[in-house]
Every structure is written in structure tokens, then in C-alpha cells.
TrEMBL record:
Family of the protein in this entry: Belongs to the class I-like SAM-binding methyltransferase superfamily. RsmB/NOP family.
UniProt protein name: 16S rRNA (cytosine(967)-C(5))-methyltransferase
A biological-process GO annotation: rRNA base methylation
This protein's GO CC annotations: cytosol
Catalytic activities: cytidine(967) in 16S rRNA + S-adenosyl-L-methionine = 5-methylcytidine(967) in 16S rRNA + S-adenosyl-L-homocysteine + H(+)
Keyword terms, alphabetized: Cytoplasm, Methyltransferase, RNA-binding, rRNA processing, S-adenosyl-L-methionine, Transferase
Biological role stated in the UniProt entry: Specifically methylates the cytosine at position 967 (m5C967) of 16S rRNA.
Organism: Gallaecimonas pentaromativorans
InterPro entries assigned to the protein according to its UniProt record, in alphabetical order: MeTrfase_RsmB-F_NOP2_cat (IPR049560), MeTrfase_RsmB-F_NOP2_dom (IPR001678), NusB-like_sf (IPR035926), NusB_RsmB_TIM44 (IPR006027), RCMT (IPR023267), rRNA_ssu_MeTfrase_B (IPR004573), RsmB-like_ferredoxin (IPR054728), RsmB/NOL1/NOP2-like_CS (IPR018314)
Stretches assigned to the SAM-dependent MTase RsmB/NOP-type domain: 164-430
Taxonomy, superkingdom: Bacteria
Active site per the UniProt annotation: 373
EC class (word): transferase
Molecular function GO labels: RNA binding; rRNA (cytosine-C5-)-methyltransferase activity
Length: 431
């Protein structure tokens, strides 16, 4: 519980909000500077929480300041966000939250403005809940989302956009997938129960369940030996719907970090090519497969090109496309601040290019499963509808009864069955 931890927290928030870095990128480096594992965990909790509540905390700070902190002093706005988060949303005693946050100002090269930080935090402490209540009177602020995203959610889900918003603002449970090569779900749930760990099975998933309370996964029975992997329930439908068969050639076109590649290989003795454009992210694929004692052909290449391909058609293709990730905001609260409205059209164009290219590598009679962790129709239903319209040999294989070429695919919304938001559409290449 140190000033250094608060200074690192302000730097992480600045990396996300000012430099467009993801929490996954910014947090590990900041954590590495802290020796104590408890401090590392606290830093993570504060940064995740502060980004989740950012819009409210920003509005509250604006109420307490005469003029905004700009230029080099902008880092102090980030520090104040962290300070207010501790006061309102953590169990840290107020005197420690204020004292350590004020003491972080000099560590950020802003020692002269220590008094300002102290004044703002003391003022917030005095006003108590009334400060946040006033900030939350602004309905846009109360959503904790940027305006552009709310506008898109309202357009896509006129009657239930608020449910999506509410789910995005919750913390997600810890979902796990049993490695079917090592045992089945019932056996694993028994082992957990014997270890005194409460788990909830999801009947629609052959291998999936979530824990009643999050815990260190490395301490779960058999984790190191690959008995179980972390994967949201919604993501587990990918391999389940792809339904791989022994001996098939399968392309996982956007594979890193490899959660779905591993699941496919757990379900069948297939010849899987795990492709991703990011060499760095492919290291994670190798690590995941090694832990699970599985193997795939791992290729660093662009899925919108075929220069890497040996010309042998695939029986099945999973295209888990790069997307806005607007379905997984509850797990990644930084996404709402990293994405921009204009990104959506660019992502949709990239998805269409990858989709058209993958189609050329699929056998007649083969199936392609298109997936995203987005909730936006432009990347999902509209994307697949346009693909079906321009691709003569493509036929929708409905996952749900209510699908048609005009309304293709299955949209899962965040929070439903405690899962992330995901989209799936299955397409057959006509023989
Ligand atoms: C949604 S993530 C994939 C998650 C992965 N399927 C899993 O389950 O672990 C999307 C991936 O697409 C990759 N990607 C982005 N553009 C790509 C492209 N043009 N070709 C191949 N991969 C790409 C990204 O590097 C990222 O790893």
C-alpha cells in the first residue's frame, strides 16, 4: 500500500487513456516494478476498477476543479481518478487512500501540485456520496460508456441496450473448460467439490462451467498438467459448433492466444493450422498448447492473404475475426476507451477481406464458422448477410431456428447465462 503503487497506477491509466495502450500491455510492466504479490494484485484491481468507473470519476473530478489539468499535469488527473476510485469503491481506509495518493504526486514529477491533489481528495471525502450522485445525474455519465458506443448499442438493441450496458459494467465470473482428453466435466466437478471449490455447470456446454468465486487458477486441481483451461462460456461454443472430426484439416485463421485452437484439438485428432498475424501473440499459442500437451502447425501470416498456404483445402475453418471486442467489455474495461467510432467500419472491412480469402481455402462441402466477440451488427449479422449475398457457393447452416440468410447468425449478449457477448454464424460451401 504505497505511494509508488499509486504512481504506477496513474501511469497505467495514462498509458491506456492517453497513449491508447491496452491494460494487458501496460499493466505487467507496472506490476514488475512492485515486489510484493499483494501490491501487484491491488494495482490490477485499482486499474481495472478505475477504468470501469472512469466516466463517473472524471465527471466528479471536473466538479471539484476550476480548470482541467492539461499538458504535463494531465498525469495528476489520472492520479486523482485512482484516488477517487479508492475512496468510493475500495475498502482502503480513506486516510491511507488520500495520504498515499498525495505522496505519489512527487513520484510523477508533480511535487509542486501535491497541495492540489490533497485539496481535491479531501473535498471529495467531505462531500461523500453526494458528489457521485450529482455526477451520475447526467444520464450519459451514468452509463460509464462513451457516447458513440451508447449510440450504437441503442441503434442495435432499442429495447434492451440498457441490459448490455449494465452487463458491461459488472465483473465477469471465472469460466473454465475441462480438457476432454483428460476426463469429463462430471469427474472434474467432483474433484472440485472434494477440494471445497464451488462450481456451477452450464448445461449447453459439454466442457464448460464457472466458479462461484474467482480464485487463483494455478491452484485448481490438475491445472499445471492441463486438466482445465480458462475460457469464457461463450467462447467455448466456437469449437463445439465447429464440431471437428478426427483426421480433418482445420484452419484456425486468427488463432492467438490459442484458446479455441486448444479446444478444437481437445475434441478431435485433427491436423490444425493455427494462423495469426501477430508473431508475439503466437508465443502464447505455443505455451498454451505445450501445457495441454497438444500440437498444431503454428503459422505467422496474414489471413487476408494466401501466400503462406500450401494449396491443400481445409475441411473446416474457424474465423475468430479481429473485432471491436465490444462483447467482452466486462473483462476488459479499457476497451471502451481504446476503441473509436471510426474503428468499426475499418474492422468490418478487414473482416470481409479475411472472410473472402478464407473461403478460397475451404473444401466444397466444408464449413466455415465465423465468430466475433462483438455485439455490433456491422461486424456480425450485417457482415455475414453481405457475405452470403456476394458468395454464390455459400449457404447458411443455421445454429438457431430463427436464422435466415436475411437474419443470419447467433448473437449472444454479455451477461446472458453469465457469459460474454459473442456472435457465431456457420456457413457451408456448397459441394
Ligand atoms: C479475437 S482474437 C483471436 C482469439 C483466439 N481465437 C482465441 O480463442 O484465443 C483475434 C486475433 O486476430 C489476429 N489478427 C488480426 N488481424 C489478422 C490478420 N489479418 N490475419 C491473421 N490474424 C489477424 C490478432 O492478432 C488476434 O490474435
Amino acid at each position: 500500500m504505497s505511494a509508488k503503487l499509486r504512481a504506477q497506477g496513474a501511469r497505467v491509466l495514462s498509458a491506456v487513456l492517453d497513449e491508447g495502450k491496452s491494460l494487458n500491455e501496460a499493466l505487467p510492466a507496472a506490476q514488475a516494478s512492485l515486489a510484493n504479490p499483494k501490491d501487484k494484485a491491488l494495482l490490477q484491481a485499482l486499474c481495472f476498477g478505475a477504468l470501469r468507473q472512469y466516466r463517473l470519476l472524471e465527471a466528479a473530478i471536473d466538479q471539484l476543479m476550476d480548470k482541467p489539468l492539461k499538458g504535463k499535469t494531465r498525469i495528476l488527473q489520472r492520479l486523482l481518478v485512482l484516488g477517487l476510485y479508492q475512496l468510493y469503491f475500495s475498502r482502503i481506509p480513506a486516510h491511507a487512500a488520500v495520504g498515499e495518493t498525495v505522496a505519489a504526486a512527487p513520484l510523477l514529477g508533480q511535487g509542486k501540485l501535491k497541495g492540489l491533489v490533497n485539496g481535491v481528495l479531501r473535498n471529495a471525502e467531505r462531500q461523500g456520496e453526494a458528489l457521485l450522485e450529482k455526477a451520475a445525474k447526467n444520464k450519459a455519465v451514468a452509463t460509464l460508456h462513451p457516447d458513440w458506443l451508447i449510440a450504437r448499442l441503442k441503434a442495435a438493441y432499442p429495447s434492451n441496450w440498457q441490459d448490455v450496458v449494465e452487463a458491461n459494467n459488472q465483473q465477469a465470473p471465472l469460466w473454465l473448460r475441462v480438457n476432454s482428453r483428460q476426463g469429463d466435466k462430471t469427474q472434474y466437478l467432483d474433484a472440485l467439490s472434494q477440494a471445497g471449490i464451488e462450481a456451477v455447470s452450464e448445461e449447453s456446454l459439454t466442457c464448460g462451467f464457472y466458479l462461484a468465486e474467482a480464485q487463483d487458477v494455478t491452484a485448481l486441481p490438475g491445472f499445471a498438467g492441463g486438466a482445465v483451461s480458462v475460457q469464457d462460456g461463450a467462447a467455448q461454443f466456437a469449437a463445439q459448433l465447429l464440431a471437428p472430426v478426427d483426421g480433418e484439416r482445420i484452419l484456425d485463421a486468427c488463432a492467438a492466444p490459442g484458446g479455441k485452437t486448444a479446444h478444437i484439438l481437445e475434441l478431435a485428432d485433427a491436423e490444425v493450422t493455427a494462423l495469426d498475424v501477430s508473431e508475439q501473440r503466437l508465443v502464447r499459442v505455443q505455451e498454451n498448447l505445450a501445457r495441454l500437451k497438444l500440437s498444431a502447425k503454428v503459422v505467422a501470416a496474414d489471413a487476408s492473404q494466401r501466400d503462406w498456404w500450401d494449396g491443400k483445402a481445409f475441411d473446416r475453418i474457424l474465423l475468430d475475426a479481429p473485432c471491436s471486442a465490444t462483447g467482452v467489455i466486462r473483462r476488459h474495461p479499457d476497451i471502451r476507451w481504446l476503441r473509436r467510432d471510426q474503428d468499426i467500419a475499418e474492422l468490418a472491412a478487414l473482416q470481409a477481406r479475411i472472410l473472402d480469402n478464407c473461403w478460397q481455402m475451404l473444401k466444397p462441402g466444408g464449413t466455415l464458422l465465423y465468430a466475433t466477440c462483438s455485439v455490433l451488427p456491422q461486424e456480425n449479422r450485417e457482415q455475414v448477410k453481405a457475405f452470403l449475398a456476394r458468395t454464390a457457393d455459400a449457404e447458411l447452416l443455421p445454429i438457431r431456428d430463427d436464422e435466415s440468410a436475411q437474419q443470419p447468425g447467433w448473437q449472444l449478449l454479455p451477461g446472458q447465462n453469465k457469459m460474454d457477448g459473442f456472435f457465431y454464424a456457420r456457413v457451408l460451401k456448397k459441394p
